[in-house]
Amino acid sequence: MEIIKYPSKRDWPALLTRPALDVTALFDTVRTVLDEVKEQGDAAVKRYEEKFDKVVLADLQVSEVEMRDADKLISEELKQAICQAKDNIEKFHASQSFMGQKIETTSGVTCWQKAVAIEKVGLYIPGGTAPLFSTVLMLAVPARIAGCREIVLCTPPDKEGKVHPAILFAAKVAGVNKIFKIGGIQAIASMAYGTQSVPKVYKIFGPGNQYVTAAKQLVSLKEVAIDMPAGPSEVEVIADETANPDFIAADFLSQAEHGADSQAMLVTASEGIVEDVVRAIQEQLDLLPRKEITEKALSHSRIIVLNNEQEVIDFTNQYAPEHLIIQTKNYRDIADKIENAGSVFMGAYTPESAGDYASGTNHTLPTNGYAKAYSGVNLDSFIKKITFQEITSEGIRNLGGTIQIMAANEHLDAHRHAVTIRLKSL
Predict the structure, then answer these.
(1) 3-state SS string for 318-335
(2) pLDDT of 354-403, one tens digit each?
(3) Which of 265, 264, 262 is nearest to 232 (CA)?
(4) Which member of 49, 223, 322, 352 is catalytic?
(5) Residue 411: active-site member
C-alpha cells in the first residue's frame, strides 16, 4: 500500500488512476459466445454452462420446487434480515417516484411528461466466491416499484446445478418473475437476444467479472440498454484527527475484500493519523478469511496526505469515487462541497457496508470515475419518460409564426407547411 505525502497537483493524475480494466482484449472471445447464443439459443447456453460453470443442465429455469426448497434452506435470522433490508430499499426508492406536471409554455400550448416503466428488464447476479443476494434486492425492488412487467434474473449455478438459496429467497420477496441458472457471457447473451427459455429484455442491470463487463458493452451497441459502465469496486475515506483509526481501517478493508482489483483510498490533511491507520489495517487484515484477496487489493490502494481541506475536496472531486466515507468533525460541510461521487457516507457511525446491504440506498454505483457523469441505480433507471404536447387553435396561432420562421431558415419547407396549412384552416 502506497503512502504519499504532500504531492504537488502535477502528480495528482497519477494518483487518481485505478487498477486497469481493459476488456477490449476479450472482445473476440466474448463475440464468439454472443453469436452462438444468438444463433443457437438454449443449446449454446447449456454447452457454455458445461464449459464455464462445469455443470450439465437439463433445464435452465429454476423450478417452483427449487424455490420452495430454498425457503427451507436458510435460517429465519437471514430471512428477517433480507426482509428488513428489502423494506428499507423499498421505502427509499418509492420516495423517488416521478410526478409530471402539465405546463402551458405559450397560451394554448401544453406540454408534459409521463413516466412509463421499462417493460422487460434483466438482472445479472454474479456467483463466484460470495452469493450476492443483496444485489438481487438492489435491482429487483426498484424494478418492481417502477412497474416493470417482466423481471428476469440470471445467475450461475454451482456444480450440482443449484442456485444459492439466499439468492432465490431474495428474488422471491423482491418480486422477480423468472430465474435462470446461467452465468457469464452466456447469461448476458440470453437476456440480450432471447432464447427458447429466456425472454429477450430491453435493459440489463448488474455487476460481473471482466467477461460480463465486455459482454454488456458489446450487446449495448445495438441490442439492449445497460445500467452503466462497470469496473472494479472502490472506496475513498476522508478523515481528520478526530476520526477513529479502527473505523477507517474497517472501511478500508471492507471494500478491499470485494476483489483483488478493488481499490481503497484514504485522503487526509491530518498526517498524524496515518501511522495509527496503517497499524489498524494490518491488525484487522490478519483476522480476515479473505486476507489473500484483500492484500492484492491493498497493493494498489493508497494513503494520500494533502496540505489542507480544500485540496482534499478538490482531489476527491477529481477522483469521483464510487463510495465516499467522510469521517471528520465537519463532515456535513465537506459533504456539501462534494460534486462527484456515487454514494456518500457521512459521520463516524455510517459504514459503507450499511449502503451495501440495508440502509435503503442502492449499492449499484458508477466506478472508475464515471460518477462525474453517471448516477447510481435508482427508480429512474427502470423508467423511461415520454413527452406529450397538445396545441389548440389558439396555440397554433400564437406559436405558428415562430415555427414557420425557424423552419424556413433551416430550409425545411415541409416543416413550415405543416404549420401553414393549419393556420389557413382557421
Answers:
(1) HHCCCEEEEECCCHHHHH
(2) 999 999 999 999 999 999 999 999 999 999 999 999 999 999 999 999 99
(3) 262
(4) 322
(5) no
